[in-house]
Design brief:
Two copies of one chain form a homodimer. Chain A has 101 residues and is α+β, with helices and mostly antiparallel strands. Chain A is built from three helices and four strands, in the order E-H-E-E-H-H-E. Chain A has a four-stranded antiparallel sheet with strand order 2-3-1-4. In chain A, helix 1 runs antiparallel to helix 3. The first copy, chain A, is globular. At the A-B interface, strand 1, helix 1, strand 2, strand 3 and strand 4 of A face strand 1, helix 1, strand 2, strand 3 and strand 4 of B. Strand 2 of chain A pairs antiparallel with strand 4 of chain B, so a sheet runs across the interface.
Amino acid sequence: MILEIALIDILPGTHAEFEAVVATAVETVLRPAAGFVSFELRHGVEHSDSYVLLIGWATLEDHTVGFRESERFVKWRELIGPFFAGAPRVDHWSKVFEVAR
Amino acid sequence: MILEIALIDILPGTHAEFEAVVATAVETVLRPAAGFVSFELRHGVEHSDSYVLLIGWATLEDHTVGFRESERFVKWRELIGPFFAGAPRVDHWSKVFEVAR
């Protein structure tokens, strides 16, 4: 599983609305996408206007080709883009290993 | 659960050794720490010399106080610090919501 990590700074004062729109966008646009595995929204402890999106994809191409080159991506950005305070930083990460307590 | 995300750039050509040392450091130093929940090491797809450490802690203070102010942190940095190509970027993130397929 490939993990997409997207760091997003949003406009101050829009937290509640942003979180609600992300929930809607995940359900309607992201969750039905081919290769979608998991989604987690987290809020910055040190940086109150920052969020991180952790998105699991079966393969890299499920995101970079299947999702990004589809109408789903246009709709996704239509929904959440208006909250961006700057360009998101998006990178992909392959698993080396994991450990639980 | 609080998620620590640490972005680390390492010295080129040290990937295999770095990954082995991280595995040792997790088992001997991190896993026994109070409040440790989970650890995941991932390797950059776009940036070959970058890694991300995703570390789950029961509370923020389990990391920032309990771990960082202990001898464990000294040992942790002794083990993995020599591979760093620069200062890691470390931030903490609180969960808003998550979704699985």
